[in-house]
Every structure is written in C-alpha cells, then in structure tokens.
Amino acid sequence: MLTNRQLFLKNLAQTSPTPIGLEIEKAEGIYLFSAEGKKYIDLISGISVSNTGHRHPKVINAIKDQLDHYLHLMVYGEYVQSPQVKLAARLAELLPETLSSTYFVNSGSEAVEGAMKLAKRYNGRSEVIAFHNAYHGGTHGSLSIMGDDVLKKPFYPLLPGIKHISINRTEDLAEITEKTACVFIEPIQGEAGVIAASKEYLLALRKRCSETGTLLIFDEIQSGFGRTGNLFAFQGLGIIPDILLMAKGMGGGLPIGAFVSSNEIMSCLSHDPILGHITTFGGNPVCCAGALANLEVILDENLAQTAISKADIFREKLGNLSGVTDFRSAGLLIALEVGSFERVTAIIDYCLQEGLILDWFLFNNCSVRIAPPLTITTEQIEQACEIIASAIKSLN
Ligand code: PMP
C-alpha cells in the first residue's frame, strides 16, 4: 500500500520538484503536529493566513454554529444570507464610508480580478498600472499585473494595456494618465521581501490618481487583518484607496476574499450588463461566519496593535546577529536578509529539523520569511528566535 506521501506525489498536481512534504495531523494556535508526532512552530501562518492562530476556538464555534443552519444556498448576490450581511456590515463599520460596499469572493486572485473589472467598467478605460516585483495572484488577470517575468512569460499572451512602474519613484507617477483605469499597489510588497511604499509616495500616488480619475486599488491581501499593525495598512497612512482587496487572513483558515469600494462605484456591476461579476461560492455562509468571528478575535485581542511590539522582539533578537544583513518588518510581516539563497535554504532546512517552519519569498532570494500567527506570545517568540539564531550561527 502506498503511503500518504507517495499518494501525494502521485495523485496531487505538484507545483515544485521539492515540496516541503510535511504531513500534519492536527494544528492548534501556533503549532502544527505531524503524523509522526513531531511538534512544529508555524512561523509563516500558511503564508499570512492564520493570523488568529490555527483553529481559534471562537472561529471554530462560529463555523459549527453555521453548520447547523445552512451551507451553500444560492449563487452570490441573490438571497439575504445573514453571515454575509453581518460580515459586510461589520467591515463597513470599521472602514471609511467610501469603503462600505463589499463583494465577497473565494480568494485573493479573484478579488484582484473583480476589482480590475470594476475599475474598467466604472471609468470605461482599459489601461492598468502595477508595480515591478508585485505579486497579485495566479489567474490570467492577476498574472498580467504581476511584476516579475519568470512566473509570467510562459503564459503569454496575457492582458494588453498593462504598464509597470517602480515603487517609491515619484517621477514614474507621470505614467498615470486619463487613460489609466486603475493602479494596483501592495502598500507593503510581500513577495518582494517586505518592501514598504513610503507615506510621501503613497500621498503623491493618491493625488495623481484623483487628478486623472484613476481608481487606486490597494492589494492588502497579505498585509490585511492586523498583520502590519493596523487592521489594514492604509489606515496608518492617512489615505483611502478607491478599492480595497482582502483575502488570506480574512477567514481564520477558511477560503474567503473580497473587494470593497463605495456604493457608487460598486453599483456599476449591477447594470449594463446586469450580473457584471458572478460567483457561485463567493461569500459562502460558513466562510463568512468564520471570518466574522476571526475579525472579532483580531479586534478583541488587540492583535494589530501588539503585532508591532512583537515584531520589535524579533528585531532585537535577530536584527543584529552576524550574518543578518537587513531586517525589514511591517508589523509581523518580516524579511530577515541573510545574503544568499543558499543561506536562506540552509536556515529554513535547519529550522525545520528543529521543529520550526520558515519560508522564502517569491521575488527576493536572499531573505527568510517570518510571518507568525499574530497570537504568538513573547515566550514563543523568544523560543523561536533561539532556534533561528542557532541556525544562523551554524552558517558563520
Ligand atoms: N495579492 C497578494 C499581495 C498576495 O500575497 C497573494 C497571495 N500570495 C495574492 C494576491 C493572491 O491570493 P490567492 O493565492 O488567494 O489567490
């Protein structure tokens, strides 16, 4: 009989020749437990998803409660489903008034797709601007605005009319004109290795978009739900995007995403044509119920605020170690730069052996990714840092 690992390799479509291949039986809080009984500290949260930890009891209870009412009833947008309504209303309470209409989807890529269609439909333009080193997803539209050629070129032709500019280069803003439908930006570029747009730059970008009638779209799929010190990063910047994208940390481990805008902009999707964007499963009631509980946990446990002080502990313990060339952090989205991809993978392998899960970044080959559940405690951070520090020392 084949083992699960053998069946995984045989029957699941593979995305790399070297998958991590861990087999996890149970997850709780910041820990994963393997089939062989080994305990791992999850320092990447399933790539910025498990912000409230794995299986937060309040999220689990909300899911169980919804299971007793209904699962899928109808495609998105037709029935009044209370988990969707409650979640959208709560988001509207927490966001500025111009972000009070939410369209639920199933993933980050779908949020990107929906937002791009919305912008084109709203201002009737077709040109889209995005950034070098940006990651926005794996579907054709989101791939078209990706700022890296390696993952993109084999799939040409992609969408026409896409331009890329460089983050924090004010002179590039002249590329945004009356022809530009929208600009997609990650206020903190995740896969580029935690590269933040400066506040001044974002203010200038906001101004240029307003002057040209271009919709400014913030992709907060990785930076959202408390990870970078605010519920959403834009809330600490003094500017408001026209469309906000969310997913990943939204569902407490369930698949859900959304694009959020004003009622005026969003209303475009309901006429000329009607059903301007359709999804069968977007806003699945179980996912919405879990997502609402997850959101309340982030607020009740002050997870956004404490992300900053927790990141400071990582900085203090790791930032000055010999062999660490840079430490970039936006709250608990951290890039530990160690000089080369060989060193990155050596550190990841060492830590995995020691029961600690780290990862690398898609577009930055000399940094280690640290993005723990926001529920991680000071003691757990100290314990994790000891393992990472010994991994780094083993290379010196
Ligand atoms: N945007 C950003 C900034 C992301 O980090 C990701 C996922 N890594 C996506 C979009 C795509 O999300 P998904 O994988 O859920 O489609």
Kindly summarize this structure in a few lines.
This protein has 396 residues and is an alpha/beta fold. It has twelve helices and 17 strands.
Blueprint of the fold:
Elements: H1 4-11, E1 24-28, E2 31-34, E3 39-42, H2 45-48, H3 57-67, H4 82-94, E4 101-105, H5 108-123, E5 127-131, H6 140-144, E6 162-165, E7 180-185, E8 188-189, E9 195-196, H7 199-212, E10 215-219, E11 243-246, E12 257-261, H8 263-266, H9 285-300, H10 303-318, E13 326-330, E14 333-337, H11 341-353, E15 356-357, E16 359-361, E17 364-370, H12 378-395
Parallel strand pairs: 3-15, 5-6, 5-7, 7-10, 10-11
Antiparallel strand pairs: 1-2, 2-3, 4-12, 8-9, 11-12, 13-14, 14-17, 16-17
The structure holds 4'-deoxy-4'-aminopyridoxal-5'-phosphate (PMP).
Q: What does this protein look like?
A:
By secondary structure, the protein is α/β, with parallel strands linked by helices. It folds into 2 domains: 4-55 and 302-393, Aspartate Aminotransferase, domain 1 (Alpha-Beta Complex); 58-300, 3-Layer(aba) Sandwich (Aspartate Aminotransferase, domain 2). Helix content is 35%, strand content 18%. The chain has helices at residues 4-11, 45-48, 57-67, 82-94, 108-123, 140-144, 199-212, 263-266, 285-300, 303-318, 341-353, 378-395, and strands at residues 24-28, 31-34, 39-42, 101-105, 127-131, 162-165, 180-185, 188-189, 195-196, 215-219, 243-246, 257-261, 326-330, 333-337, 356-357, 359-361, 364-370. The strands form 4 sheets. The protein has a 7-stranded mixed β-sheet with strand order 4-12-11-10-7-5-6, sandwiched between helices. Strands 1-2-3-15 form a 4-stranded mixed β-sheet. A hairpin with a 2-residue loop joins strand 13 and strand 14. The protein is globular. The mean pLDDT is 97. Bound molecules: 4'-deoxy-4'-aminopyridoxal-5'-phosphate. The site of 4'-deoxy-4'-aminopyridoxal-5'-phosphate has 14 residues, from helix 5.
